[in-house]
Amino acid sequence: MSEGKDSARQTGFPGLMGQGAGAALAWPAYAVDAWQRSVLFLDVLRRRGNAFLEHTESKEPHVLSFEFDIILDGRNLARPVNYWLARIKDPQGRTPDPGKRPFMIVDPRAGHGPGIGGFKADSEIGVALQAGHPCYFVGFRPEPEPGQSIEDILRALIAFVEAVARRHPEAQGRPCVIGNCQAGWAVMMAAAIAPESFGPLMLAGSPLSYWAGQEHHAPMRYLGGLLGGSWMTAMAGDLGGGKFDGAHLVSNFEAMNPANTLWSKQFNLWADVDKQEERYLGFERWWGGHVMLNAGEMQFIVDQLFVGNRLATGEITLSDGTPVDLRAIRSPIIVFCSRGDDITPPAQALSWISDLYSDLRVLRAHGQTVVYAVHDSVGHLGIFVSAQVARNEHHEFASNMDLIDVLPPGLYEAVLHEKSDEPGAELVDGEYALRFEPRGIADLAVHGGTSPEDELRFSAMRRVSEANLALYRRFVQPLIRASVLPMGAEWLREMHPARLSYSAFSDRNPFMAWVAPLAEQVRAARQPVTDDNPGRVMERQISTAVERALGGAGNARDAAAEKLFETIYGSVVLQAILGIDPEGPPARHRPGMSHEHLQLVERTIADLRERIGKGGPVEAIIRAMIHVGMANRTTDERSFALLRRIREKSGAKTMSLAQFKKMLRDQFFMLLLDDTAALGAIPAMLGKDPSMAKKGFALVEAVCTAAGPLSADGERHLQRVQALFGQASQRLSAL
Questions:
Q1: Using an 8 Å Cβ cutoff, are 362 and 440 in contact?
Q2: HSE-up of 160 (CA within 13 Å, CB side)?
Q3: Dihedral sign, CA of 381, 385, 388, 394?
Q4: CB–CB of 604/668 below 8 Å?
């Protein structure tokens, strides 16, 4: 009987008694609930539309949840840009550690406004602040400065990071710069032309190799070819009066997932409007904040990157003759991507490495350290929006940035594992421990790449794009530019479906005037039903069916697009007409090692060989530790926590992080060059104090076993080191 009373009460009919009566009135109760939810749903859309208008009318719109002070305005630079640099205030009033490197987060300018990197407390900004780092944010205004170019933005980013470094002269290490999505390639280009200005670079969901992918996956890479190249980008800029509307990019993003765009997003809000209202409005405030780009900016992005794919092959040269060669970057590069990301799949985030470096030897010869992490499932936005990702991956990267900075040159995969019940768990901050496992260039192939057939197809696409763009500029562009008036361009922007979907539901629409007062009445008399109500069960079943239908349609469209692209650009006739010969020179440029760099490598090798027998106890201890670590095939953050103690106890604490990093790299390369000579020199390097050998080996053993037992190879190397340190101890004791 009490169960029947509860059921009756939950339906909103408290006088109802009994199971039978409750079942009879379940559908009327559902009808009331569905009608009320519909009114509240419309009210949320109304509030969303009002927030959209308020956001677009703001001079400097953003969605940061942190207070900040703008310390450098890009409009005041020699070449003005619409970017600005802000210092983030800690909401808890904590003072950053002056010895810790600052973090600078750069948000993507890919259709939306700035702030997603600090959208909430559990974010990239929140993680950096919690770790005690000074934190800065690079945002931008919705309108570009007249004549602003991509080159100007790169120079601005360099000016920003140098300004941050000047504000923290006591910091150990250059600023760490995080580039989200499209900001990633901009940060990489800036670091390539000014490598001395940047500390570690972290790329979150950033595409760098635009032709790469896997079969039946990442269909967005075919879009440029199916549109005939970049001529439509040029036309969109001309129709916009010299500006490219970021709403076009947002629409492309939404078109990738018709099930979510056309149904799930709205249904999930309607189905749970009582709880989802604020979360939905918070996200939509950013999603609807469309920004503009100069037509020239967007043309550069499409021609040089997405269609041209010239970044990962070193083919881009700035107007002043400066080459953009990613191999010039000297800072560690951290790549964070996800298998669940259809916008920047792992292949596009990682294949630039294999594009630039034929093997690990070449990567090390350029002195580069690349760390990558591949999430199993999170989507594109989740990489820099998900609270769980912020608490796990971003927290671990921020906490271990100094370790990453001193890793020897090479390619590593970052692997998170729970620290509970493991040795040295007290050395780890947080719930997870981070370890770095060495990888080879060939290991990246599991995430996809660019097959020889795709090289030919995309090369054909690039040449078709160049031809179509030339035809458009010669015969069509003059007519459009002469016809478009500023008022017409503004009208086209206002009528864009991505904007109308917001403004049409705002209070500016007189037909929405009844929604707000009725919504207040509904909230006061809300009568929700339980999830087991037959109406609720039915709507979930209908929703599932609609999602499957739309998802299937989207998959069929993507498969057709892939097949059409392969048919058109895989045509041997078209490729022959375009001058692409599979038996001739490579379809795409592959950068090699320059003569100057080879000479530099030879001089460096000669210098290292000469210094193999030189150094003191600190170098000997570090050399021994690296020897064991190389055999153990992993580096763990717990080992680095103890490594800090080596700096304190062995006299290395007077070194800066940069000096310590150089010493580590020198010892690493000496072991690679001649491990027999490098190890044989250890006894003499330990000095004249007999106790140093014992203390030194104890430190080596503690660091190397901090993360648990060594592998068989690691144990053999440790025993070899023990013998060397024992020889030194016996020799010194006999003196």
A1: no
A2: 36
A3: positive
A4: no
Mean pLDDT, residues 694-698 taken together: 88
Contacts of 193 (CB under 8 A, 6+ apart): 154, 158, 318, 322, 324, 328
At 294 the pLDDT is: 98
Who contacts 6 (Cβ-Cβ below 8 Å, separation ≥6)?
Answer: none
Contact 110, 380 (CB under 8 A): no
- For 412-432, letters b (16+ CB in 10 Å) and e give bbbebeebeeeebeebbbeeb
CA angle 554, 558, 560 (to 5 degrees): 115
Could you tell me which residues come within 8 angstroms of residue 543 by beta carbon, excluding any fewer than 6 positions away? 263, 264, 267, 271
Amino acid type, 672: L
Round to the nearest angstrom and report the end-to-end CA distance of the chain: 96
Q: Is the pLDDT of residue 387 over 80?
A: no
Q: Which two tokens stand for residue 401?
A: 């940035």
Long-range contacts of 592-595 (CB under 8 A, 24+ apart): 593/362, 593/365
Of the candidates 26, 38, 149, 134, the residue with the CA atom closest to the CA atom of residue 83: 149
Predicted confidence band at 735 (pLDDT cuts at 50, 70, 90)?
A: very low
How far apart, in whole angstroms, are the C-alpha atoms of residue 459 and residue 468? 14
Nearby residues of 563 by Cβ (< 8 Å), 6 or more positions away:
none
Q: Is 552 helix (H, G, I), strand (E, B) or coil?
A: helix
Closest to 183 measured CA to CA, from 209, 145, 223, 153: 153
Token reading at 58 = 């703001």
**More confident call, 487 vs 642:** 487
What is the token pair recorded at 701?
């053993």
Measure the CA–CA gap between 682 and 613, rounded to whole angstroms. 8
Residue 82, token pair as written in the block: 């619409």
User: How many Cβ atoms are within 10 Å of 342's Cβ, its own excluded?
Assistant: 17
Per-residue confidence (pLDDT) for residue 83, from 0 to 100: 97
560 backbone dihedrals φ, ψ, rounded to 5°: -65, -40
Per the CB < 8 A criterion, the answer to whether 258 and 553 are in contact is yes
Amino acid identity, residue 680?
G
- Which residues make beta-bridge pairs with 8? none
Token pair of 63 as six digits: 């969605």
Beta bridge partners of 371: 334, 412
Cα–Cα distance measured from residue 248 to residue 432, given in angstroms and rounded to the nearest whole number: 40
d(C-alpha 160, C-alpha 138), whole Å = 8
CB 103 within 8 A of CB 178: yes
719: which 2 tokens? 């025993």
